Batch of 2 targets.
Target 1
Amino acid sequence: MKSIAIVIQIVLVLFTQRLWPKSQLTEITDINDPDVIWEGSEFRKQIKGVIGNGFLYSMNYSEDGKSFLLTSSFGIELYDSNYHLDKRVFTQDLIKDAAFSPDGKKVVTLSREALKLWDIPNKKVRLLSQVKMIPRQVIFSPKGDYVAYCGYRFGVQLVHTDTGSIQTILKHKNFTTSIAFHPTEPYIVSGSRDQTVRIYSLKDRSDQVLYNAKEDVISLIFSPKGHYLYIATKNSNLKIMDFRTRKVTNYQFDFKELQAMAVSPDNKYMAFYTLANRFILWDIKKNRIVKRIGPSNPLPSRYLNSKSLAFHPNGKKVTYINEKNQVVVVDIKSGKTLPLEEHGAYGAFSASWDGQYLLTSSDPLLDMDPRFIHLKYSRTTLIQPGFKVIRSTFHPDSKRFLLAGEGKIAYYNVKTLKKEFSLKDEEFGLPYSVNIAPRSHLAAISTSYNNVLFIDLKKKKITKVIDLESPAFCISFDHTGKRLAMGHSDLDVYDIKRNTTKTLYSYIGGTNTLASSLTRNWIVLGDLRRLLHLVNIDTGEVRSKPKRSFGKSPVAFSYRGRYVAFGGYKSVGVWDTFKDKVKEFRGYKSFVEQVAFSRDGKYVYSLGREDGLIMITRVTQ
């Protein structure tokens, strides 16, 4: 009997470990946020920290209203009832949607890679299912026994939260855009671009077409008690179905391109958000719009999710994500709005050579002012130059920095963060690249007008303009500051004193990324193919090194010029040019768009294309 009991105990342990794998989560406290959970032990070893929150995608309230959940390219963020940050969970997956369980104790997340169930208080995570579709929406059933998710595929996945069993239901003929569980009856409905709403019975496992909308269904949601099903379509039609009689009433609005929809807990109001970044609050019973907000930027935002707005369970306020990547709280009674926090979703950054500071500019769609980040103290300051910043660079002495926008520049003091001077000129085009020469006051800006402007930062004026046959997408002064490397289809070097240009290196693929060593006569190029090229600016000697991924690889030299950092598809690499060895670090969320070294050469800062986050990777011991 004793041996049988031991066998049973072993089987139970093995089964439990398989059902709920040993957690790979731990907390760190050495960068920015005191409570950050990191997923993946191997990835955690190479990462020191993350800067920024990334793009916001969706939101959700717990049923008791005490917790507020945001999904972002950082991962998931949990706030208390006063919208104060309580916990941030970083994942390697690019999460697009999440939802609270009915009891508020767990969170389910949906990314392109995986469907996961998070037990935040106990720091555990369970993989429910691999995901093989572009994710759209994930929801819990009212009892919490099922999770359903949909995306840009023609079916809805139904997953049992205890057993992990998976079933494909509600098969459409086009992309599934929205799903909803009935709050009291065993049904789930789905809307699709095939212009139909389908219904599935959890009781008898049958599905059928519930309604033919005759236009693309964008979003659908049940009323709180389940008496009505609200169906929003692309052409701003709202169809209200009496779920018992199946009778449908149609409302036509004067705004276009509905993107998201929510209903208040008392069923008095509906909130809408459009593709053109307009928020609308509608009084259902009075059939009138009581609030319109925005947009300050009418350009379509590609970051929105069907759950980019939500009502608080008390019904007194509604929140939404605006075009500036902010969470906005709207008081329904007074109509007052309160934007919560500016989330950092970066489009570019530059690092000071002394390793103390970062300058960040936002993603072009967000149109936000740049941030100055003091890394040692994790302190962030908003810089307001008065124009949209596209490119930035630090002076090699790390005492000044330059901001450039279309037709404008501003030069700042690092210590005081005060503007020393600004300049605007009709010869400025869209700035492609900016650089400041070492040990001098000369700056260069390449622009979309097919020229390069040289600016004397001491005299505060443009001293020279050279015209090019095609734009230089990247420029960099050499270590002497007397020559400027320019990346076209070839690598050209301009001698500033002699006013002459020569082609130093020519190859197929174009020179879209380059960097110069601050201490040596070398330039490194990032090839569109699987190659890096190290070019001697004096002799023209070339050394090439293969890398894993195709694409435009950003490159950067370490301070002393021995190491070259480069980015790739979900990877960061370091080339030791002395030993001629390459080491790559994998596990990032998207293609790495930009890289920079810390002063001591131990860390690489990198920016992902899709996540807007700056990650700090330990590359040497």
Note: The helical segments are 2-19, 41-46.
Target 2
Amino acid sequence: METKMTIPYGIADFARLRDEGYYYVDKTQFIPYLERYSAPVFLRPRRFGKSLHVSMLSYYYDVNTVDRFDALFAGTYIGNAPTSRKNQYMVLRLNFSRLVVSDSMEKMEAHFNEVVCPALRNFVYRYERFFEGFKFDSETSATNMLSNILSWIPGRKMPLPYILIDEYDNFTNQMLTASKSTLYETVTGGDSFFRTFFKTIKSGLDEGVINTCFCTGVLPVTVDDLTSGYNLAEFLTLKPDFIEMLGFNHDEAAAYLRYVMKQYGNDKTSFEELWTLILNNYDGYRFQPEGRPLFNSTMLTYFFKNFAELHGRVPNEMTDNNLRTDTDWIRRLTRNQKNTQAMLDKLLIDDELTYSQLNLLSQFDRHTFFSANFYPVSLFYLGMTTLKNQSKMSLPNLSMRSIYMRHYNIVNRVNTDDNQYQSAYDAFKEGDDRLEPLVENYFQAYLQSLPAQVFDKVNENFVRCSFFGLASHFLSSCYSFAIEPNLPSGRPDLVLTGLPDTDYHNDCRVLEFKYFKKRDLDKAESYTAPRAEDIAQVKAYAADINRQFTNYRMRTYVVYIAANKWCRVWEV
């Protein structure tokens, strides 16, 4: 009998997830901390699990779901230790991701009312026992309808509203992306419909007729630009108590992986192999310099669901197309091609961006968002970079690195037509298992097609990243990849490991690149064999890997490249 799928990819309704037996990573332990705040705003990159968390909170606080508490929260932290506020409120849940950008204020206000007014009508209907005799003055303005509801509450013995606004900044971010800055300023300023709606919520909080308004989003820009319209917002994003409220830490991800392997795996795959694979592709998000790294929950769940559907095989495509970051944000942030190129160079050549912790915590309005000093911080909130340490940011994982490498090729007009590479990779997969032709093909078809001025900046990091981008495109069905994994003897440039349940399983290749500037061409050409220290280095890396994975067949390579002039590969 076929095993029921219990990997909740794409499921954001907490009740459905619990009722139908899907796997749930318990995040209810953060509820007591949330109750310290009346206007919390929590930001995370898109598809980080925000909607499911909002859904969980709605069931926890809703007075109408009191009879379902045990069924929905059994076995969770909060099920065993509920707070006094459980099932005490009338929950108004709004999803602003449904809002769209139009070319005029009038059209956007009309659409805003089309989305929010029905939610307010349904709110009164759901709690009609508390609204006997209530009528809206009109049902065409969301702000007026909310004002009518809040005016009804004083003096009556009834639960207070608990407002949940998911993706509060979705449509305003669309305006920033689409260069509609004038429209954005109008929407978030003056007496606009959007600003007035938040002012109404602020009044309700001030007057004690709203208990809490919890907002999720991606950027702090919109709330800061609302200024006096909603100046009581409390950003929890970087507070230590909330760092792991979304995303999976290593303990949670490891438990999840063991569950998936037990339910859907096969005996050809070990936990250690899959753990290494998901670490390299989905881990690495840090929201405090000293914080533990986190997995993007949706990216990891995508992998688990495909792994389950393939009956324990690793999927060929490691990154869900729905989750690919919109790298157009880089062009929008940097405003011109020169600045875009400089940003990509820092991420893919220098492998880091310098940031100021003061900027990370400071006011963050629209003008700040687009200023050069704030580029790293803007990319951080968008999920395009992560905190490497107290002063540097970097790309979090291989999934993000491959996305940026593709964007780099587009910006630099590098021809990445498969026809230039296909024959070399076809030969490799058809039995010629030498890695040397693949490196030589990379040098001739890729490096030599880059603009000459690029080689004033290119370094070893760029070489390993660009070769990874190319090789992973053609060999993702055969190998997993790791760039600079931490080993006892150091950090190898690139490791290719044959995937379980394929003909390549247990085949492991370790590459060490040595890059020479154009001015050092004569020195590079003088080497007829790799240096002894380079051989010792790559062999030490291989020995470290073999100690952990004793069944791996290790092969090691030293690669010397001098700009776009010379290349040699040695299997050692």
Note: The radius of gyration is 27 Å.
